[in-house]
Amino acid sequence: MMNPNIRPNPGHRKKLRFRQLFLLVGILSLIAIFLNQYDFNSRGKLVVDPALAPPATDGREVTISGNKGGFTIVIDAGHGGKDPGANGSSGAEEKEYTLSLAKKVYALLQQDPKFDPYMTRNDDTFLELDERSAYSNGLEADAFLSIHGNTYTDPSIKGTETYYDSLISIPLANAIHDKLIGATGFPDRGVKQEQWRVLVGSERPSVLLEVGFMTNPQEEAQMLDNAWQDRVAQAIVDGLNDYFEGKQE
Ligand SMILES: [Zn+2]
């Protein structure tokens, strides 16, 4: 015969179930809050909403993300922060022109459902070259574009150059360069192979765009012009469209 003293108290068990239910509701609420703050893009990669991300202390977390599906494009505005890049003939700094043009490319890609754009920097932040390529590698970018302005001691030198390092990047370089020379109106200096560090570190199809010479007064004036930048940004997007035509995500 069971000792009635050790028989479980039915009222106590009910209370336990109630507590378990309460705990379960609490856990589910936390999961709901978590899912609301984070988003998973089409490839299941967890992407922190930049508006909710903790403020960056050294700028390394500063990135903006489309997070909307499509080909992943990383746009790298050359230089930034303590590194101004080239000094134009008027004294303009390359880092400001690269950021302005990169933002225009980003905005156009953001409107296009085929593309999911990211920027290595979206303000005047210094980033190491290896951090830029590592960011693209980490995102498994379908294309990495590093935007620059050229410089030379002879101010008469001008024109548009597109660089690649790895052979896998040649079709991307050709597609963008073809559109770029039409939009810049600058002399065509060609598609060239060069071991720029930001390209060497990249495992993804990657190009470096030397869109024009900031040390040439005529080209610099155009490169700082808003309408010219709009045209060139559209040309870069047109080149990406050509490159990705027929490709599957
Ligand atoms: Zn540069």
From TrEMBL:
Membrane-traversing stretches: 21-38
Gene3D superfamilies in alphabetical order: Zn-dependent exopeptidases
Keywords: Hydrolase, Membrane, Transmembrane, Transmembrane helix
Domain MurNAc-LAA: 133-241
Organism domain of life: Bacteria
Keyword Ribonucleoprotein attached: no
Pfam families: Amidase_3 (PF01520)
SMART domains named in the record: Ami_3
GO function terms (MF aspect): N-acetylmuramoyl-L-alanine amidase activity
GO cellular component: outer membrane-bounded periplasmic space
Keyword Transferase (UniProt): no
Protein's GO biological process: peptidoglycan catabolic process
Protein name, per record: N-acetylmuramoyl-L-alanine amidase
Organism in which the protein naturally occurs: Paenibacillus pinisoli
Phylogenetic classification of the source organism: Bacteria, Bacillati, Bacillota, Bacilli, Bacillales
